[in-house]
Amino acid sequence: MDASLRAELIAFCGIETEFNDAWGKPTTVSEADQLQLLAAQGFAIDDDDTARSQLLARQLDYWQRVLPYVSVQRADEPQYLTLQVTLAQANTAVALHLHSEDGGAVSFELTPVDGELVQVVVLDDVEYHQYQHTLPQQLAPGYHQVALADGSVTQQLIITPGQCYQPSAFSQQKQWGIALQLYALRSTRNWGIGDFTDLQHTLTYLAKLGADFVGLNPIHALYPAVPENASPYSPSSRRFLDIRYIDVTAMPGFNQCARSQSLVQAPAFVTAVSEQRSKDFVDYEGVMQLKLPVMKSLYQWFTEQSDKETKQLQKAFRQFKQQAGDSLMQLALYDALHAFLYQQDNQYWGWPVWPQEYRDPESKQVKQFARQQKAELDFYCYLQFIAQQQIAKAQQVAKDAGMSLGLYRDLAVGVSEASTEIWANPGLYCRDASIGAPPDPLGPAGQNWGLPPMYPYQLYKQAYQPFIELLRANMQHAGALRIDHVMALLRLWWVPKTAANAGGGAYVYYPIMDLLGILALESQRQQAVIIGEDLGTVPEGIRELLQDYGVYSYRVFFFETAADGGYISPAHYPRQAMATLTTHDLPTLIGFWHCEDLRLGKDLGLYPDEQQLQQLYAQRHVNKQRILDSLHGHQVLPADYSRSTEHLGMDRTLNFALQRHLAAGNSQLLCLQLEDALEMTQPVNVPGTSNEYPNWRRKLSQPLEQWRDNPELAGLFSQISEKRRQA
User: What reaction is this protein's catalytic activity (predicted)?
Assistant: First the structure.
């Protein structure tokens, strides 16, 4: 490909050809990798004339609109309107209507040339001008509309605040909470998987000990038809909830419905529930086989009732469906169709391999299925309604118990290729690439997460509505939201499917100022604190920008090291941050100290190079000694406690001391893992594995009823609360 054409295409697509890697070394993306990324975005890299035509078509799509698709502006800055016209149209007045979110409307005229000329381009021998005009009125934060008087072109005008939500309580005290994998909760009452009622009980217990929140794994909708697709970070829809977390016994009619009671009281069912509770790893298939038939029976009961109380619930359900709109119906249609096809042939694991006539949600066959299976679709909508009600109740329980934040939710960075989101909106996603990470210390070969990225321009063309809906849905019934891989607001590492490995990609840029503005607006409206998972390769200046917008940094103790290799004191962590000892992708404290992760990695074949493994062991030994030195230096261990890691195992004294050490730190937020308080060894997830290790299945070692009665655990959590009050 001609070098100048390639450069123009690269610039248009926002592909970064040079970047600093995780070690700070300047790195250049090879020409071959650049071309493969252009091919993934649909350009004919083997035919320059065709590629030029494709580029021109995309440029004209932007410039031939009088009003850009969307404009995101700050409320504390002068507000403007952009007009894009040909040179010949520059002196022709444009009639416009401004509709503000509060219902106000203003009609006015602007002559393009009277504004400030900000850009000129020539495309296909036509000169286009872009002019900026001051808006006739200053708008409040919100979603407004500007349209041509004839209604032919509309722009979404989004006015945003300058910062995400900051609770007033943050100025008075520091907060702490516990992170857990909801599915991992054991109890004497659940059906083999943690549910929303278990969550309520956990919130009540922790609130009494002074905790401010409970952090959850992503609880996005997965795949009812294929329950073993269990990764919460490869969901089907991030707008809706995983129905497996529904407490069936808390569904309307459970005690009144004779049909449902006959199902759950059958000896075989009782035995199956007991077996599921006793398993150390969640059997998703088995759990769904228990839950779905009873859920369906209770849905039927719900539709048959006519008493006053149920009628009110039926009205609420209708309102829920209306408010959730097309996205809910698309999910219900996908789940029903998926179940129908998968029962016929288990090769139909997702829509990319369905019969051709079902791959388009607008096809005649799909619409016919939706008409014929209307009740089945309504059933899946009902399950989402129930899930929303149960999580809302959990948040209310937390707030009533005195928690300042309550639920702290997690927004995954993407969806799997077989997801509802991509099936329903295929033009938004690039299926010829997936997102991941370039080589770094945690992944020397890079990482490929198998999640198709959104096209930045298509997201812009859709007025950022998919992004807005994601934020709004995940901030609902939550006091805080963690944005997984928050760097995605700026750039994502795209790996073309043709790449030899995850290192054969490049960064693609996104409109960060627009996305940050929307994040701030939704955060303020939902009153949700925002935590950005800013780990990995972080470009210069991005943390400062996130800080300016009130996004809390994510600081992991094991990664917070000084230039000499020692561990930074938590007293020196930034105030605007959430501190944590470890995460779901890292070993537990005991696993780290006993090198269980390295042994497991060797068994799983993650370290084919024995020399590399031995280097990791040696480094771990050094790290442990430095941690021990730091703890003694801060006097959080008894004076007579060992000062050498030689033959020193992780005991409760050391474990709890580490947690108290972090609790005394400077960060506004502290998040500890429940696994560490329970002194567990096995990890939740081993990055770089799929079937080699049972990721996202390992349960907690003790049931809720046991550990909440443990005085030593209560003592630790009370000490954590006291440390936070004093910090």
Answer: Transfers a segment of a (1->4)-alpha-D-glucan to a new position in an acceptor, which may be glucose or a (1->4)-alpha-D-glucan
Q: Tell me what the mean pLDDT of segment 393-415 comes to.
A: 98
Tokens (6 digits) for 686: 């081993």
Residue 456, in any domain of the structure: no
User: Are 43 and 106 contained in the same domain?
Assistant: no
Let me know: does 700 contact 674? Beta carbons within 8 Å.
Answer: yes
Say if pTM beats, i.e. exceeds, 0.90: yes
User: Which residues touch 17 (CB under 8 Å, ≥6 apart)?
Assistant: 10, 28, 29, 34, 506
**Which DSSP state fits 501?**
S
Quickly list DSSP for 277-325.
HH-SB--HHHHHHHHHHHHHHHHHHHHH--SHHHHHHHHHHHHHHHHHH
483 strand-pairing partners: 411, 532
Rounded Cα distance, 108 and 128, in Å = 23
Residue at a domain's end among 92, 125, 160: 160
What CATH number does the domain containing 137 carry? 2.60.40.10
Q: What gap in Å lies between CA 562 and CA 543, rounded to an integer? A: 18
Between CA 369 and CA 432 the distance in angstroms is 29
Are both 10 and 57 inside the same structural domain?
Answer: yes
Distance (Å, whole) CA 396 – CA 392: 6
Instruction: Look over the chain and give the mean of its residue pLDDT values, rounded to a whole number.
Output: 96
Q: Fill in the DSSP letter of residue 684.
A: S
| Domain end position, chosen among 130, 160, 190 | 160
Q: Which domain holds residue 144?
A: 70-160
Return the pLDDT at 565.
85
Q: Give 140's DSSP letter.
A: P
Name the pairing type of β-strands 553-556 and 529-532: unpaired
**Gap between the Cα atoms of 686 and 694, Å rounded:** 9
Decide if 26 is inside a domain: yes
Strands 577-580 vs 669-673: parallel, antiparallel or unpaired = parallel
